[in-house]
């Protein structure tokens, strides 16, 4: 295995482990809102498991897009 391949493999493993740890922490710390604070629709079950979630995925994407546009 070439050194750069090994480095990429290690980076991928570390990233996946970090994501898994964050997901586990979120599950341990309790759920987020059950309904979107912007549109009022129910937030998907998987998304509600993430602590601090306040918006459905569509409203969150719009919020982030608008936020990034204003803060460039």
Describe this structure in words.
It comes from Methylobacillus flagellatus (strain ATCC 51484 / DSM 6875 / VKM B-1610 / KT). InterPro entries: Znf_DskA_TraR. Keywords: Metal-binding, Zinc, Zinc-finger. This is Transcriptional regulator, TraR/DksA family. 62% of the residues lie in helices and 0% in strands. The model has no long low-confidence stretch (mean pLDDT 84). The protein has one domain. The chain contains three helices and no strands. It is mainly alpha-helical and 72 residues long.
Question: What structural keywords apply?
Answer:
about 70 residues; mainly alpha; about 60% helix; flat
Q: What percentage of amino acids are in beta strands?
A: under 5%
Question: Ranges with pLDDT <50 over ≥5 residues?
Answer: none
Globular, elongated, flat, extended or rod-shaped: what is the shape? flat
Number of helices: 3
The radius of gyration computed from the alpha-carbon positions, rounded to a whole number of angstroms, is 17 Å
Give the CA-CA distance, first to last residue: 41 Å
Count up the domains: 1
* Secondary structure: helix percent: 55-70%
- Overall pLDDT: 84
What is the chain-wise order of helices and strands? Answer: HHH
In total, the number of strands is 0
- Describe the sheet with the most strands: none
Secondary-structure content class: mainly alpha
